[in-house]
Amino acid sequence: MSIVFALATPAAKSAICIFRVSGEGCLKSLNELIEKPLDGHRVFGVRPIYFKKRLLDTVGVISFKGPESYTGEDSFEVYAHGGLGVMSLFVDLFKSAGFDEAPPGEFTKRAFLNGKLSLNEAEAVVDVIDSSAEEDVFLSSQSLSGEFSKAVVGFAEDIDFIRVRVEGEIDFSDEGEDFLDGSLFNDLDNLISRFDLFVGGCLNKKNRLVKNKVLFVGPVNSGKSSVFNRLLGFERALVSNIPGTTRDLIESEVFYNDLSFSIFDSAGLRETDDLIEAKGMALAVDEIGSVDVVVGVFEKNDPVVMAQFSEMAKNKIYIRVLNKIDLGGSGVTGFDCCLSAKTGEGFDFFKAALIDAFAAEDSHSSTYLVRERHISLFGESVLSLKGALGRLKKAEAIELAAEDLKIARSCLDEIVGFKSSDDLLGDIFSTFCIGK
Amino acid sequence: MNKYDVVVVGGGHAGVEAAHAVFRSGLKCALVTFDAEKIGQMSCNPAIGGLGKSHIVREIDAMGGIMPIATDMSGIQYRTLNTRKGFAVQALRVQCDRELYKKGIQKLLNQTDIDIFEDEVVDIVVEKDSVKGVITKTGEVLAEKTILTTGTFLNGIMYTGQDSEKGGRVGDSSSIPLSKKLYSLKLPMGRLKTGTPARIKLTSLNTSAMEEQPGDTPTPWMSLTNKVSEHQKQLSCFITRTSKATHKIIEKNIHLSAMYSGNIVGIGPRYCPSIEDKIFKFKDKDSHQIFIEPEGINKDLVYPNGISTSLPKEVQEQFILSINGMENSIIEEYGYAVEYDFIDPRSLHQTLETHFFKDFYLAGQINGTTGYEEAAAQGLMAGVNAALSIKKEGEFVLDRSEAYIGVMIDDLTTHGITEPYRMFTSRAEHRLLLSQSNAEQRLLRKAHKIKLVDDERMAAFCQDEEEYKKFVTNILEKTKVTEFTNKKKELIKLSEKKSIATILTRPDIDENTIFETTKENKKHLARAAVEIKYKGYIEKQLREIHKNKKQNHKKIPTNFSYANLSGLSNEVVEKLLKAKPETIGSASKIEGVTPAAINLILVMLKKEEIQKAHA
After folding, report:
1. pTM for this one?
2. Which of A172, B13, B216, B492 has the most CB within a 10 Å radius?
3. Which domains are present in chain A?
4. Out of B81, B278, B424, closest to residue A433 by CB
5. B537, B530 contact by CB (below 8 A)
6. Using alpha carbons only, how large is chain B's radius of gyration in Å?
7. Which residues does chain A have within 8 Å of residue B414's beta carbon, measured at their own beta carbons?
8. Share of chain B above pLDDT 90, in %
9. CB B207 within 8 A of CB B325
10. Mean pLDDT across the stretch B437-458?
């Protein structure tokens, strides 16, 4: 089976992140990545990793020789530094090594197929695959009527029409038909610019989606950082009971229910003569302009302070949170959520409120939900189309342009469906008079 | 009566290739045919190869088959098509002397111990769920394995205008009792149709009014075995076109055509339409191309390729006389459409053994294909698989990524057919890996392993490969130059010395001018130029293939219950039930089957395995 990789830790800024890689031949690829091989298996080693001739990171690596691994195949894990930039570079690195991004449930599926899991566990695997299939079905059926899918189907048809002519020129060159008239270049050129524009649009949509931002504000020492940390599930912001320990905005990304959003923690807003902290506060005030949701964290209902923050968050979706209910603050009114960062009480409700806030914010664009994977496929498709046009213009072997076009079309298979060669031939026969 | 290892029914291109493969496998074979004189007859146009098809012939060649040798014994015009479109889609087409081709095949069969029976097969011998030979008009031929290659003869009916006549080819009869027998066994059968044009005296044509098309010089060879030492005399083909008058005559009489009067139920090939079809379906075209193909060296006859028809004889004559250069045509034989039985190839394993009977194989047009090359390839595969099965040496199945033959058999057995199936290069998704020039590199070692080719040829091949490797490492990688001439004949100076291997990666290079080559080197250089230029694409395709190789070869049991899979749409379940894919790889090639569906099938297969182990 192919080599797949996945980020095993949340896609959030953290101390370290872990990538898992599995598949036949992956240990050979690993040795190419780390230059100096590990001394045996199940042995931890520290190695520099380079990407495009530049040092990417110094990482911890451990390798597992199949079948002594979770999946039963050769596998390895990489422990890298947990910045979002580093993570995305690792994704690029693995892709350039020929690895594929693992779909949901892939590692478990492999473990099962290689006899590493029991039958009961297999049921769970089926569920995972089922749900991802369902999601795909949902996406495609939703898009059938949607603007988005119509556009993609249109591009696929345009590519097909160009392929009909190019394949016709190859398979029926002795038929006295003129397959490649001047309109081909124009059609292809035109298709590329329209498709390019579309991909750009998708990227904007995606960025909009990803940049849904939450800002945590609140009086000094109200527990913003603790709430924030509890929400993400691990220690991130510096937390102490000395007022004003959070000195900077801390950006992180959290994913719930397919929505991804960033959270900014900010220093408590107060008059300060500490320069560093003042800077952090200024950032927070600036930041409010670009966020979608503001979370106010308080430890009590102080009408003056509350009004001050409400004023600051006007025109934004504003969620007022009462923290530290473990200390006995229950019964206080005027808040949307009551919770305790220390015990975790009330967080389910808080998360639901956050998701609702984004659902409300995003409802107008939900039919246009574009996945990262689809955008990268579209990008590859456009690139292949450009390759084909270049080759056709330079009058290089047409079979290579045909290959580029085939790749360009196959990038859309997942959304539009696979086009069989027999269908393509059918189009040739109905468009051109062929045959002796 | 003798008992044979294998009995082959039919002496066409599938039958002879099947019988010869059994012989090469070292087993005893019988071949039953109506008329031994007609063995190896080309029933349609006298040409072998062409786009997508020469690839198959070279694959047959790499596995020791006889079609390519007979082609060279009889080739009277060799033309390479698609020369400027890339190496992988280049194809050699050979016009053959119809008589010499047949004689060539018969000569090659005479050098074997194959027993030939001139008889009609009327029934098959069925014991339990297995076929044990055939019953003929005069007796029976028993065998461990039976291969049916009935071509257009199974319940063949020929149509010209309103007349119809039983037979699979002009002057020959039709296998009607056998067809009845097969229908009575309730096999999944249907009707297909094909057509052929009139045959005309060469001396009655004014070829000077046509465009002459000579063959390639120097004349190439179809077979790479060097078994034929000298070419036949080379002839030209001619090209002419239908006129407006031709179209008028056909339009006026179209209701008289057998195909348009509703007499024929069989489905014809879209890529090989009759002239009636061309004129009816493409009304805006006012002219169609016709290839005038010579029938032989000393034969005053041509095959006018492009005007196959089932119009009445007098209409045929009228429209032929309206064609440029054919005004004085003397017609020797009239065109006709032929309708025949086929068996749904989805009822075959990839070995071409049937699902419904053991020891029973089908090859050629009976499986819904058209074309000599497609038939011959299936014959070879059925023959070798029958032999391997007797010797208990497993199966010989080619992958889609290693041979056009693999593509064809996988297409047939997985998707079935909706019209007579012929090969096109666009059917092969790994087209760039499968050129007509690398068939030996792809298949010879495999074929040698199962004794389809002998040690001598294998040794010669290995030596050649060794020399090629040396040529690349010792000459191409070590010779450094500072300048070269590009395709526009401009001298390009390089800033530093570079090896020829590096320079060959440039798209603008003309490899023939880069340095003086000997004849041997020239062959190697051509190959190296391709391998170096296409490296990126080839590596990409290879990665694709290896990615899921293990998974793709995983077998799906015939009785696998797709209906029990939750998460599959009814539509997908229906498609899978219909196609009965034998492997995960075939299943993934069915339209509408998503990667998620494949995952589900894999998980269920494993689950069944575990359950069986615990039972």
Report:
1. 0.76
2. B13
3. 4-113 (3.30.1360.120), 147-201+369-432 (1.20.120.430), 218-361 (3.40.50.300)
4. B278
5. no
6. 26
7. none
8. 62
9. yes
10. 96
